[in-house]
Each structure stands twice: as structure tokens, then as C-alpha cells.
Design brief:
- By secondary structure, the chain is an alpha/beta fold.
- The protein has 2 domains: 157 residues, Quinone Oxidoreductase, Chain A, domain 1 (Alpha-Beta Complex), CATH 3.90.180.10; 132 residues, Rossmann fold.
- It has 11 helices and 17 strands.
- Strands 1, 4, 6, 7, 8, 9, 16 and 17 form an 8-stranded mixed sheet that branches. A 6-stranded parallel sheet has the order 12-11-10-13-14-15, with helices on both faces. A 3-stranded antiparallel sheet has the order 3-2-5.
- Helix 4 crosses helix 5 and helix 7 packs across helix 8.
- The longest helix has 13 residues.
- It is globular, with a radius of gyration of 20 Å.
């Protein structure tokens, strides 16, 4: 095996029980195991703190998670160990995908799913280039938007930003974003998304009745009401549970109800590995207006978690280069 800067230990954010992330997560030091055949080892640089990283820790998807588990689904780092067949990847800056949890100093992942980052893409963008962009692109492929009125609930999220931007590019007639905090309004308007306050029940009712397609990140009462009001022939896609509550039916909805989990579609999105899939994704991401971030040393991880809860706050990233 070819090695470069090989470490003997790693630190990982592990949760052994479900609960509030700030209390359920532990910063654990362990020995690095032998590198499995066909995989590469990546020393992590940056990883974002997304709602999609935190919600599983609460137990919302407990049926799909085996404890103990390592948190985190995306991030960027450099390959520091590889078997001879993949020695050419040593030193490459990559996204380590479909392997272990990314909230740790070293991540092992299949070599074919270590996506090399183009040299003109900075780390603060590369670290966020997987979950939200690929989810948005995949949903718009499954449910085309050309000529349709599209509603985005939870329009304070990065995924909603990308859904709205790409929906406009792909010919949606109208894109409406439901927001909680007024600080989101300028951002939504800049993306061509019509902002509507999440508390404005009257406007939401009218919009839902005219919607062709809803992408819901919230769950809970707002999502349930939208689904109840959408017309026959429309489609409601639930892709998140930011409220921690499910979508409830008061009867048989007239609209078609769909659930979306990115992991269920990776086989069709990337049948030849994630590296191949990203050849088409990088150009789409190049035109995005990416929001600013706050980078936290990994030792300040609890501050990063708190920032996620603050409306209008910048996206927090964990810097794994400060490890103790």
C-alpha cells in the first residue's frame, strides 16, 4: 500500500444513542484500521453542518441507522493512503462519498466514489457540493418543472436555494418559496423565487391550490396543509423533516404524494460511481451564487451546531485541520 502522511489515529463525531446532537455526539479517538481493498483514505479538511446531518442524530430516521454511527454526509479532503491500484490518487483533493461518516479526521471510501475536485473550485464550495446539489438535480430530473408552478417549503435551506435556482433555469413558470425569517427575503428574490411568509396562511392556501409541484423540506402542519389543498394531478414531494414531524393526511389527498431520499436513487444517478456522475454536476454548480459560510475549528463544534439554529446565520463548516 502506498502511503503519504499516514496517521495512526483518528478522531470522529460518534453517536451511540439518538437525541439532541449537542449531547448525543462525542468526539472520540480511535486507532485507524487497515485500509480496505479498493478504498482510499482521505484526511478531511472541511465538512458542513447541514440539517440533513443533524436530523438523523435525533432519531427521525432510526429505522435506517445502525448505532454507533459517525455523523456527517459530505465534505472535502485529500487522499493520504491508497493501495497500489489507486496510488495515482495520493494527494488529490476529493469528496469522499458513499463511505464512512465525514465528521472525522480520516474517512475511508471506495476509490470510485472519491470525486476529484476541479482546481478552480475552492474548499468552502467543494465541501458543500454533494448532498444539496445532487438532491436538487435528481429531484428535478424525476419531476420536471418546465411550464409549472413550483412551491418550495423550508425555503431557508441551501437545497431550496438550489431547487429554486435550477427550476427557474429549467423553465418553471413560477417558483414560490415559503420562508420563516424575513432576512431570507432578499436572497429569495435575488434567485428569482417569490417569497411568501410561512405564517401567511391565506396566501399559502391560494398558492397551494394553484401549485403543480411542491418540494417540501418541512413536514409537519404546514406541509400537511399544502398537501390537503393541492389539486388533482399535482405532485407533492417530501424530501426533508426540518420540523421533526411527518406529513399527515386528513383524507386521501388529491395530489400525488412522493417521498424522496437521495440514497434510494444513487444507483440510477451514479451507476458507474460518483466520480462519473460529477462530470455532469460540476458545470451546473459553476453558475450557482453560493452563500457565505462561517468556518469553525473542529474544537468549536458545539458553536457550529448552535449557529444552524439561528435564522439567517451563515452556513457553518467544521475545519478538521485543528483536531485536538
Amino acid at each position: 500500500m502506498s502511503l503519504s502522511n499516514q496517521a495512526q489515529h483518528r478522531r470522529s463525531f460518534v453517536y451511540r444513542t439518538f437525541g439532541a446532537p449537542a449531547s448525543a455526539l462525542a468526539w472520540v479517538k480511535t486507532d485507524l484500521p487497515p485500509l480496505p481493498t479498493g478504498q482510499v483514505r482521505v484526511a478531511m479538511t472541511l465538512a458542513p453542518v447541514n440539517p440533513s446531518d443533524l436530523i438523523p442524530i435525533t432519531g427521525a430516521y432510526a429505522q435506517r441507522i445502525v448505532l454507533p454511527a459517525v455523523a456527517g454526509y459530505e465534505g472535502v479532503g485529500r487522499v493520504v493512503a491508497a493501495h497500489p491500484d489507486h496510488a495515482h490518487m495520493l494527494g488529490k483533493r476529493v469528496l469522499p462519498l458513499r463511505g464512512e461518516g465525514t465528521w472525522q479526521t480520516h474517512v475511508d471510501c471506495p476509490a470510485g466514489d472519491a470525486v476529484e475536485v476541479p482546481p478552480d473550485v475552492p474548499d468552502v464550495i467543494a465541501a458543500r457540493a454533494y448532498i444539496n446539489p445532487l438532491a436538487a438535480i435528481t429531484m428535478l430530473r424525476l419531476w420536471p418543472v418546465r411550464g409549472k408552478t413550483v412551491v418550495l417549503s423550508g425555503a431557508g435551506s441551501s437545497c431550496a436555494d438550489m431547487l429554486g435556482h435550477l427550476a427557474r433555469v429549467q423553465g418553471a413558470t413560477r417558483v414560490v418559496g415559503l420562508y420563516r425569517s424575513d432576512c431570507r427575503v432578499p436572497r429569495l428574490r435575488a434567485l428569482g423565487i417569490e417569497p411568501v411568509a410561512q405564517a401567511d396562511n391565506t396566501r399559502i392556501a391560494k398558492i397551494a391550490q394553484a401549485a403543480d409541484l411542491t418540494f417540501d423540506a418541512l413536514g409537519g402542519t404546514v406541509a400537511s396543509r399544502i398537501l390537503d389543498l393541492m389539486p388533482s394531478g399535482a405532485t407533492f414531494v417530501g424530501y426533508g423533516l426540518l420540523t421533526g414531524q411527518p406529513v399527515l393526511f386528513t383524507g386521501a389527498p388529491r395530489a400525488s404524494y412522493k417521498r424522496f431520499h437521495l440514497r434510494d436513487h444513487l444507483g440510477s444517478v451514479a451507476p458507474d460511481g460518483m466520480a462519473q456522475a460529477f462530470k455532469d454536476i460540476w458545470p451546473l454548480l459553476a453558475g450557482m451564487d453560493w452563500p457565505e459560510v462561517t468556518v469553525f475549528p473542529v474544537t468549536q463544534w458545539q458553536d457550529a451546531l448552535q449557529q444552524v439554529e439561528q435564522p439567517g446565520a451563515l452556513k457553518p463548516l467544521l475545519d478538521f485541520r485543528s483536531r485536538e
